Amino acid sequence: MNKKNKHKADYDFVKLIEVYSELQPYVFVNKYEKQTIDFADAKAVKALNTALLKTYYNIDFWQFPDTNLCPPIPGRVDYIHLVSDLLSASKLKKEICVLDIGTGASCIYPLLGNAEYNWQFVATDSNKKSIAYAEKIIIKNKLKKAIQLKHQPNMESVFKGVISLKDKFSVSICNPPFFKDESEAFEATTRKLKGLGKLTDFVTRNFAGQAHELCFKGGEKAFLHTYLYESSLFKTQCFWYTSLVSNKDNIKSMKKSLVKLGATTTKVIEMNQGNKRSRVLAWTFLTTKEQQDWINNK
Fold first, then answer.
1. What is the CATH number of the domain that holds 193?
2. What three-state secondary structure class fits 107?
3. Are strands 238-245 and 276-284 parallel, antiparallel or unpaired?
4. Which of 66, 71, 204, 213 has minimal CB crowding within 10 Å?
């Protein structure tokens, strides 16, 4: 994990329960005499992440349906810290405005980015119900001045329809859908639960999630190449474009596409969280002069 991540050590369940007592019923002592939860239990996972937000990020209200995706806070905030490192290395430190693609009902990246770095956000989503839940979270936490929501009217588009030629963003972030359809998502969940020794006749995802949050026609690769292409239509609207990439095999084709699309710089940033390996791909279309002008606010 990033050195700035607050969750590198074991969870302090005593502290978390003091702040969020609803976590208590899900905590038990395992065979190693350590407090933990059943990470195959979606309700337990949601309670833990709610407690983390309340304890470490001052998010007092974080409610959305149990059927919606519940993002794991340690991994999500790691992405935020990596983006912060990227911006700092580019000398972008003031008036940071972030475009979050597919914010979901949880609105997690804007919440974490604002809490950790006081960034401003424009957050998009194609699902109106998700937008409504995210808006309630923003209002309840008094973040309307910091986080703006935009509905993406076309489920097959990324930037078109929500970004204009007049917009300026320091960076875009995205956690793309992994699967091409619900059956592929179901198979992945089954394998995961089998690995945890929790496979039953009734399969549920421990982080939940609906089809529009998890699936895109053609899967992660198709989404990412749509993301790349549409970013090239707005080359000067973002200093950096970034995305999480789950399947490392997608990186090679993405880098080739970016060369063809005219990207001036491409970076692959590794993310290591325990046994999980992922990566962030970052790219910019700005020339050296355009980057310097941006830094100088010209």
1. 3.40.50.150
2. coil
3. antiparallel
4. 66
Q: Is residue 15 part of a domain?
A: no
Which residue is it, tokens 């009734």?
202
Residue type, 205: R
In this predicted model, what pLDDT tens digit does every residue of 208-259 receive, in sequence order?
Answer: 555 555 556 778 888 999 999 999 999 999 999 999 998 899 999 999 999 9
Inter-residue contact 81 to 116 (CB < 8 Å): yes
The mean pLDDT values, 10 residues at a time, for the chain of 298 residues are 92 98 97 94 96 98 93 96 97 94 97 98 96 98 98 93 93 82 48 49 49 64 93 97 93 96 97 81 97 86
Which two structure tokens, joined as six digits, stand for 281? 């791909």
Q: Does the model's pTM come out above 0.85?
A: yes
CB 237 within 8 A of CB 169: yes
Q: What is the pLDDT of residue 210?
A: 52
Rounded Cα–Cα distance for residues 192 and 198 (Å): 9
Q: Quote the domain boundaries for residue 262.
A: 67-295
| 68, 106 contact by CB (below 8 A) | yes
**How many whole angstroms separate alpha carbon 37 and alpha carbon 196?**
13
The structural domain count of the chain equals: 1
Residue 22 structure tokens: 């609803």
